[in-house]
Design goal:
The chain is 72% helix and 0% strand. The protein is mainly α.
Length: 69
């Protein structure tokens, strides 16, 4: 498995957070629950604490909805 550090790691975390939120917002049969679950687990393994999780969750909301909350 590839190892990411610095900005690359930041981008991977942000991309995962955005993907999880985008899948969550996808209605009906096109929502890939297994992908979402796997992405959440991977993100959880990369995130160090709740503060960092909140940061990436907010960045994902801004990217997906255009709103910070």
């Amino acid at each position: 498995m590839a190892e990411f550090t610095g900005r690359d790691l930041h981008l991977v975390k942000k991309a995962l957070a955005i993907a999880v939120l985008a899948i969550e917002r996808q209605p009906g049969p096109f929502q890939s629950v297994s992908d979402q679950s796997d992405m959440k687990a991977l993100l959880d393994s990369l995130i160090e604490n709740d503060t960092e999780l909140a940061h990436y969750a907010r960045a994902a909301r801004i990217a997906v909805t255009g709103e910070p909350n």
